[in-house]
Amino acid sequence: MKKKWIVLGMVVLLISYVALPKDIKAKTIQQFEEEVERYTKELEEKQANLVRNDEEIAAITKKIQGIEAQIKEAEDEIERLQEEIEKSEEEIKKKSEESKSIISYYQIANGENAYLEYAFGATDITDMIYRLSVVEQLTEYNDKIMKELEELIRQNQIKQAELVKKEEELNKLRKSLESEIARIEIDSAAIKETLPSVQDQIKSAKESVTYYKNLGCGDSEDIQQCEYRVARETGSSLPSVGFFQRPISNGYVVRGKSWDHLGYDLSSSDKSIAVYPIASGMIHKIYTDSCTTDYPNWCRRMGYSCNGNAKIVVVKHNYNGGFIYSSYVHLRSYGDIYEGMFVSQSTIIGYMGTSGCSTGPHLHLEIGTCFWKNGGCNYDTYKTRLLNPGNLISFPGSWTNR
Question: Is the per-residue pLDDT at 197 higher than 70?
């Protein structure tokens, strides 16, 4: 009798274990609302930073315009001074010629000095003194004019050199300001790149709030427990979902879907990051693949020689009046899950890895309207009924939240 009660107790425990969903990272509506508030604040801060950057760029641009005006003035002044130098040099040349022409009447006939010939050609002592005075005055005047012109040239050359130096400094300052603008523009571009991700996070969190409120969940009720409760109350084996989230909390797209690639390859700086379902649903299949057994024709055609053995989790979702299946491939390990278990978007179903035919740690995500392992179709049909994950889920260049 005692043994019978022990067995019955174990059965009760087992039923309790199976009946209650396992979720080590479940959320509540209140937490989703807090996410909306947090991401909205983050979005506002980023937009404010963009406004500040635009204002700073406008102020620097105005400074650059002022600098360019100063550079133009300096260039014009340099050009004017150069004209004055050339004019002064012509004046020196002209005065030299005038100086020579003053005594041209008394040119040197036999190599003698014209000044002396003029001075000693006086008729009397008074005339001689007068002539000597004239020669002295002419010489002094000529020397004075020459010195003035040479000093003017020297001053102009000094001023020209100063202007050239000022122009170089202004150009250097302009380049520095242009570099600052480039830095600000790079910062703005980086902010703008993250905006879609933040906006998606706000949208996703709002959709979660709406969905779980419509489902009848309380603000502080664990959403996974709520989904399980609703499923039992309504007699539905699988609650309907209305939106999807990215399966990893931060990462980037490595490769998209194409004719030779059945889904999306996602990766992250954290090469063993936790993997979540894209929507609530039921664990449909947990298995490891075998390339040679499961899809030999495909592997042979694609040139895969490895045997596979990728760890895979498949989640079944009730969506838009039908079922879809999401597959998570190349897992390092599984989460605390089992087939037939109800899971929410916050249930960890595994951890990203590189198991199977993989060249490095990443998550391969496939989404189809049927599944070839007890999901209503064979593998060839499954390939034709695959959906593009990018049409259901927003995948920006990179993201920091689901």
Answer: no
Tell me how many domains the chain contains: 2
Please, how many CA atoms are within 13 Å of residue 21, restricted to the half-sphere of its CB? 29
Look at residues 136, 99, 131, 133 and name the one whose alpha carbon lies nearest to residue 118.
Answer: 131
- Residue 231, number of CB atoms within 10 A of its CB: 19
CATH of the domain at 384: 2.70.70.10
- What is the distance, to the nearest Å, from the Cα of residue 131 to the centroid of all Cα atoms in its chain? 89
Q: Is 287 helix (H, G, I), strand (E, B) or coil?
A: strand
Q: pLDDT digit string (tens) for 149-168?
A: 778 778 878 878 888 888 88
Q: Do the domain assignments include residue 232?
A: no
Residue 35 CB burial class (10 angstroms; 0-12, 13-18, ≥19): buried
Four-residue CA torsion sign, 355, 357, 359, 365: negative
Half-sphere exposure of 150 (CA within 13 A, CB side): 7
Does any domain span residue 367?
yes
* Last residue within a domain, chosen from 193, 221, 249: 221
Integer distance in angstroms from the first to the last C-alpha of the chain? Answer: 53
Structural domain range at position 90: 24-221
Q: Does the residue 242 lie in any domain?
A: yes
Distance CA 80, CA 291 (A): 83
**Tens of pLDDT, residues 222-236:** 876 786 677 677 766
pTM over 0.85: no
Query: Do 154 and 50 belong together in one domain?
Result: yes
Per-residue confidence band for 122, with pLDDT thresholds at 50, 70 and 90: low
